[in-house]
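debug: dumping io for the single-chain case to check the tokenizer round-trip. Nothing else runs in this session.
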Amino acid sequence: AGSMKDYGVLLRRHVVRVHGFVGRMVTNAEDAEELTQNVFAKAYAHLADYDEERRAFVTWLQRIAYHEGIDHLRRSSEERLLSLDDDDADWQVADECMADEPFDDMRTERIELLRKAVLTLPKDDQMLLHLRYNDGKTLADIGFILDRQPDYLATRLQRIRKRLHKLIKQMEYHEKE
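debug: decoded output
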């Protein structure tokens, strides 16, 4: 209803999560701070558009944050944006089951290789992985945030896992040399 007091409550409740979310998209702490402020300004301006029956408030905020981050990256040319639609033909794994192999072994060294491999992925792929596996978002919620269909995201996640499989295998091979 436009209450600044209630808006302050929302801000305090979600600022850390939103800041962390945009912080994964940009490398500069000042940019992350500015984007966080922009997200809450846009959220306040569009509170009437929020439909609590469709999505959780934090998911709605993450959608705004994602689009703010993408707009910022496009404006600043901070990094080449890679689309979720990039061709993955060169990352094909012969056996679909092999794509899960590196994830079945969760020894410390394997987890570290996985972390390194994830950091080599495009920001869009990193964000998709984070939303799914760290935040535990459903594909429907991720689709809402990223403006993508859940079926597309499921396929994309499989491709990312295949890519990570290949990257981890390459890292392991180079470690043995």
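debug: round-trip ok. The two ends are 64 Å apart (CA to CA).
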